[in-house]
Each structure stands twice: as C-alpha cells, then as structure tokens.
Amino acid sequence: MAALTPYGIKLAVHIITTDFGNLVAKICECILRRGTQSRALISRFTELPQDKVKKCLWVLIQHNCVQAFGLEQEGGARDTTVVVTQYMALFDNIIQRLRFPKFMVTVSMEKDKKGEEILEGLLQHGRLTLTQILDRARARSSVGNQDAHRESFRKLVRGRFVERCPAPEPLISLPTEGEGPAKKGGGRNKIARKEVTLEERALAAAIPMDAERFSISYDQGVDSDEEKSESKSSGLKVGEKRKQHNLEWDNELDINGGKKEPVWRVNFDEFIKRLRIKACVEYARSEYDNVAAVILNSMLEGTQRTTSTVSLSLDSIFEQVIKREEGLTMNLEHLRCSLEQLDFCSEADDVYTINLHEIIKKAQFEEVESIVKKRYGIEAFRMFRSLSNGRPLDTDKISERTFVDKKSTPQILYKLWKDNYIQMEKISTGGPRQTDFFLWRVKKDNLWHQILDELYHAALNLSLRYAHEVDQEREIQNLSMENPPPEVKKRRERLRNVRFLLDSSLMKLDDAVMLFHDFLV
Amino acid sequence: MSLRGEGALGYKRSRPGSNTSKELNPDERNVYNLIKSKGDMGIWKGDIRRELNMNNTKIIDNCVKALQLNQMIREVPDVKAKGKKRLMAMEFEPSKELTGGVWYQDGILDEDLIDNLKLVCLKLLSRHKVATADGLRHEINNLDGAFHVEVTVDQVKEILDNLILEKEISKVKSNGMGEFASFPVNVDCYKLKSKRAKMGAFSMIPCGVCPQINHCAPDGIISPVTCVYYTKWLEF
C-alpha cells in the first residue's frame, strides 16, 4: 500500500478501464486518489448517482479490486455509534491483473488441465462458489466428470492457489475502545496497534484464519454448509456476515451466488511467492551458472513456504538436489564447492543459509545498474557501481577507482545527481585555507521509489501503445481470413510481431515491477 | 638548493638560470621563494597574488615570465583543474595529486594503457579460468614488449577491480577445492563471469533510455501513441 506512485495509479486506472470500462475506472480512480471512503463520498466526488456507484463497486469487489469494511463511528443520538461502510482500493490486486498469464503458466506446471480451467474461470470472474465452478466446468468441459473437477479444485486449494474470499465487510471498531460491538476480528484488532493503518486492520480482519482460508471440509454441499455456518460463531463466515450486516450490494450478490456457500478466489500471495522463487533462481543462473540455479531451486522448493531466509544442512540439500534430473551428476564435494561460491549463502556447522532478501536486493541493483549503463554510459555505470554499497565517496576517489578522467568525473556525477540517481553532500574543511569537496552516495529508498514509478510509467506506455496498435489495425482484423491481399497479409504479420514484442516486453517489465514492489514485502 | 650550489662552484659551463638567481629583483625572489616553498604541489598564479598581497598582476606576470625564462620554474598541468596550470620550482617532480598517479600521462588519463591492460587480463583469465593478481602481473610482465612499463601487483589489482565494476569478472576467495586446487585457501582469485551481465527489462524498451520520459504523458505532446522511438522500435 505504501508504494502508491503517481504512475502506479495511472496504470491501475488504465487496467480497470480496459477490463471494465470508463465508469468503473472513474470510481476506482476516485478511491485510489482520495483514499478509503464511503459510497456517499464517492458519489459526491464522481458526481455519479449512488446506484451507479453501487453497481461499479459491486464489479470491483467481485474482481477483488476493492474491499469494503464497516467503520464504527460516533454519531446519532446519545452515546450511540453508527457503522459506515467504507471502500478501500486494493492497488496490488489491480496490478495483479497484468500477471494473469503468468499465473496460468505457474498452474500449468502442475500438469492438471482441469485445474487450469478452474483457475482460468476464477481469474475471469473474480469470485465463484464451488457450484458455479463445477457448473462452468460442466458447460465447457471436454474431459472428466464432476468428481474429477472437484478433485482438481481440492488440489488447487491444497496448493494454496485458491482461497476462500475474505469477509465481505468486517467491522472495525473505534480505535479507543477494544470491546463493545467489535466482535468480528476483535482478537486480531487487539494485536494490531496504532501504527497499523485502518486499511491494514480492515484487511487483517477480513482475511479468514489460515485453517479456514484453505479449508474445503465445509464444502460437502450447500445444505451441510448452511448448517455448519449456523452453528459456528467465528464471525468471519461469509454467509453469516451477510446476514448480520445485510449489505445492499451483498444481497444482490446472493442472487448470483448460493446463499451460504463459500465463495472462492485466486490466492495471489501464493503466485507471488512462487514467482519470487523463480526470480531468485533466474538471478542465480545469470550471476553464477546452471548448477547454482539448480541448487537454489531445490533448496527453496524443499521448504515451500518461503520466508526471508532458508537454512538446510548439506545432506538435506544434497537429497533435494539429486531428486532433480539436472542434479543427478552432482556429488557432495561439488555441491559444497558451489554453495561456498554463492554470495548470498552463509555456512555454519554444515548448515547453509540462503538469504532471499539479499538475492532480491542484488537483483534490484542489477536492474538499476542496467538502466544507468544504457542511459549514461559505461563510465557512469562504473561510478554508480562503486557507490552501490551505500558508502559515500568523494569525487577524487571515484575518479581513481573507476578510471575516469578527473576532469570529466564531476560532469558525469552531475548528470547522475541531476536525475536523482545519486546524492551529493558538500563538505567544507575548516582552517585558514578552506577547501570544499563533494561526497556522493546512492540513497536507495528515494531512488527505488522513483524507479518503481518509472517502471509503472513504462508499463502504462507499453499497454497504451499496444491498445493503439491493435486499434489502428482493427479494419484488417475484421477482414475475412481467406486469400487476403498481400498488403493485408503484411500488415497482419506486422501486427502479430508488434503484439508479441509489446506483450513480452510488458511481461518482462512486470518482473522488474514485482522485484521492486512485491518481493520484499 | 642543488641548482644554486652548482652555480656557486662555477667550473662548468653554467646552466641558464643557475647563476641568474643572484640577478633576481626582490619581487622575483619573493615569488620564486613562495613557489619553491610549495614543493611538489606548486601554486596557481592567482594564489601567488593573494599570498603575497600583491595587487598588481602585471608585476607577478613579469616575475613569472622572468623565472620561466631563467628556467627556475615551470608550468605543470593539474589533472583536477582544466586550464589551471600550476607553477613549480624546477627541482621538484609534480606530486601524484597533480599528475593523477601512474595512470596519467602529461595530465591526461592514459586510456590506451588501461584498455590494453584490461584486454590482456581478460584474455589471460579466459585462458586460465582462475588466477591471482600476482600470477597475472607475472604473465603481463613476461609478455614481450607488449607494454613499455613494468606493472606492479597493485596496478594489476586496480585493473581487475575495474573489470569487476564492469561486471566482466568476479573476485572469489579460494577454498582450495575444484578449480581453486592450485591456490592456497583464502587467497583472492579472479575469474571470468560465466555469463554476460543480464540486460534489465526496463533498459530493453525505449522508455528505459528515453531522455524525454519525464515529459511523456498519455495525453501529452509526447505520448506513447505518437512516440517516435516506439515507432522505430516497432518497425518490422
């Protein structure tokens, strides 16, 4: 949430416009720019009637781009409180829409065609109940019976690719009072202290506990689920929640979904986690070799849940490595040798610890260095790299270290400074003959924020150009395919290449966005 | 000192300037003494005026001219300040700070020497896979007539550090195993990077190198829809 940059918002709005049209995008932009707010406020700011706003919010919630929550506020008569429904934009989830093809590829690795179909359905529709998923499968499907689909669904949930939807409208009590009407998620709220934002509290309250989030045990059928939900008092059950708050939009949602049946959605966190492992492995491959990549992949896969560090003994790493085809030729000595060469790996008593955060930070630097090299040349690249450990250096030292002429060093440093890649500090020495010298350093936080905004900007540009190119060639797309004239054939060919280039560039650029935005959370 | 001593002996044909110091007028003497007191750092003409509190620049110019004519002082370039030549007494060699050190020739960075040394190091590393700085120095100095100077280990290390900055090679501590078997443990070794530095995703598209990115907006004069860099990029 913290990294909302100007172009990040523009990109998010563009994605929503492309997928759901201008009206929904207008509402979404309003929430993104002005922050969490009530429906009445959205209606006032956008100058749209409340019922239209309601329908747009409904679309955004269905596609997991907006989360509603009830905020308890003082008001009304005498010591009473009112609950006002607030809507917060889920920026990350909007940007995830760019990554749907990547998610599909990740699931296709599991080699379950039916699982892919289910995931595709969930990505397309945002949220579905199991009944809807099975109905959809029956309508489209080609292969397998309902049980097979049910099993594929279970596999997806077990793999944490799919999760139960968060509570539609968790209640957030007044921060001063820890008791009272805040039954829902009350336990969690107590853990959360004041530094946690309202949005974070709402999200934490909405997401079911892990046991429930990935549990399919209730899904024996609509009836049994109904019974159980009645007997349960967790307060986070989707159906129950609806009863208590009786949201307008929620009632309408019930027309589509089963009344008490749990609703499912894609768990983006799991995909990001897997893409993070993939990025780390690719980094090891480019920085070291295939052997390093195989070792890292085995280590990370062996642990599944990836936190910032992974520790394994040499023997267990070896066990994991030889399970893979590429690792069959490896022996212990070879493995030890390779592990010791890895910068991001430390060893103590034959236990090797991989620091994932370190890998990601290195990969981030690689991306920025690559930009510096392309924009400012090899000399600036050397200078930037000499400063990249964060320690400041003076102009002379930089010149000596990078073999750049002492006369041109300040000029290159100035260019980098002007574009905020490095920071400068003027130091004056005291004494009778005062001399000034300049210290230069890379200040990561500011620069990374700027780079992320530029990445969003570039992603927006690629998307806009893509839309423009497709629009330009709309007339030839509508022509019949049989015997097209050579001119049309050529244009079609070009459009195919252009689409491929823009699309693949966007996917790669998005890898960089994840590197700066999603992987270090 | 030595110059004056030589002049005092006077049994050889005197070098110009050796005995002329006697003929220096007081201003010239003051200027000369100041320049000489600055040793191997020399002094800039503007600073002479300030330090001697002489307001008349013409006098200083004349003094400097006379001293140069007598070959008692000379001008030396300063690598840090373009066009700001420093005056130095003849007996001194300019300090490393002024010349820029071993990599500078007449105040100019000797890029040819550096580039050639880099190239040789890369070639040697591709032949040996792993090497130490000392090993490389040995081989470089044994190359017949390739370089007119003998390089030191520190110089080789500087070259190698530069190649590390360029991501061409990496520095690894020897663990005495595998490819490091012939090196003692914990010695700094250098090896070529197995792959060329990866191109970042951003720098591969026009926006990554666009000088106008800050002026570009969806509906602006510069926009991705009308961008000429994009048009060129998308030519098939």
Automatic annotation (TrEMBL), chain A:
Similarity remark: Belongs to the eukaryotic RPC3/POLR3C RNA polymerase subunit family.
Subcellular location as annotated: Nucleus
Source domain of life: Eukaryota
Name of a matching Pfam family: RNA_pol_Rpc82
Subunit structure: Component of the RNA polymerase III (Pol III) complex consisting of 17 subunits.
Residues covered by the RNA polymerase III subunit RPC82-related helix-turn-helix domain: 10-69
InterPro entries tied to this protein: POLR3C_WHD, RNA_pol_III_RPC82-rel_HTH, RNA_pol_III_Rpc82_C, RPC3, WH-like_DNA-bd_sf
Region (Disordered): 220-241
Keyword Transcription attributed: yes
Main location: nucleus
Keywords assigned: DNA-directed RNA polymerase, Nucleus, Transcription
Name of the protein this chain belongs to: DNA-directed RNA polymerase III subunit RPC3
Domain RNA polymerase III Rpc82 C -terminal span(s) in chain numbering: 152-336
GO molecular function: single-stranded DNA binding
Gene Ontology biological process terms, A to Z: DNA-templated transcription
Keyword Nucleus: yes
Organism encoding this protein: Spinacia oleracea (Spinach)
UniProtKB/TrEMBL annotation, chain B:
Main location: nucleus
Key words of the record: DNA-directed RNA polymerase, Nucleus, Transcription
Record's subcellular location: Nucleus
Pfam families assigned to the protein according to its UniProt record, in alphabetical order: RNA_pol_Rpc34
Region (Disordered): 1-26
Family: Belongs to the eukaryotic RPC34/RPC39 RNA polymerase subunit family.
Name of this chain's protein: RNA polymerase III subunit C6
Lineage: Eukaryota, Viridiplantae, Streptophyta, Embryophyta, Tracheophyta
Chain's gene name: LOC130459073
